[in-house]
Design brief:
Layout: H1 6-36, E1 42-44, E2 47-50, E3 57-66, E4 70-76, E5 79-90, E6 94-107, E7 110-114, H2 118-121, H3 124-130, H4 134-140, E8 142-144, H5 149-165, E9 169-173, E10 177-181, E11 184-193, E12 200-210, E13 213-226, H6 228-239, H7 241-268
Parallel strand pairs: 2-13, 7-9
Antiparallel strand pairs: 1-3, 3-11, 4-7, 4-12, 5-6, 6-8, 10-11, 12-13
Amino acid sequence: MKTVNSDQLLRISLRQGISALLCIMSTVVMSMSIASAELTAKANHDHIKVDFFYHGSTVSVSGITDQGTDLIIKIASPEGHEKLKQKGKVAGLLWMNTGTLNFEHVPNLYSVHSTQKIDDLIDQKEQDKYVIGLPALSRHVELKPSASEEEKATWFGEFIKYKESSKLYASSSGRIEIQEKDGKQSYYILTQWPYQAPPGDYLVTVYAVKDGKIVDTAESKVLVEQVGIVKSLSGMAKNNAVLYGIISIVSALGAGFGVGLIFRKGGGAH
């Protein structure tokens, strides 16, 4: 009969302990995966086509999340570079452009919608971590040439006014519709898509919030693409500027000639 010494027993016990630990870790990972799969996000009308008659659109965001969670929905373009002309009096008389302010790490389009006010949902640390809300964006942006915090706040405020007037920056709270059923809650929001938003890829990010922390995220994409004659003219302007200029001049002359004929006919009727 084969005997087992104490060292062998120890190795067997260690192997069994490791196997049990791996099983526990696997179970935890699986449960975390299941939990993270509870939040879903879908952007309806996720392919916006810019044609000759395009003047903006709408995009709805919907999905399912755990009951009792608040939501923040952020729609943004990739971060990039923006310029703002700085005006001032020259020789104390004329208002003129006196310089250019460069804003780095700013999205061209940025809108945030939440079930409650963002400050009531998450603290500044969470806002800054995920760049949620205009205050967090202002702390994220880099201004060149560099300026004091007071000057930066002033100029960023002007930048926001410009973006909001162009319908490219927006925020709201309380507009997300929530319905609860079978221990889950579905959400829905309809947003206006501004025609000023250029073609490109946009990201919709939905954050689930509980007890002041972001516990889950889900993403969906929106593609804005030029089609038809708009795409052809845009490509021509980029790749064959001379031909594009000639067509533009001929079109303008044709339009002027047509207006002239209309007024000439109107004058002859008297």
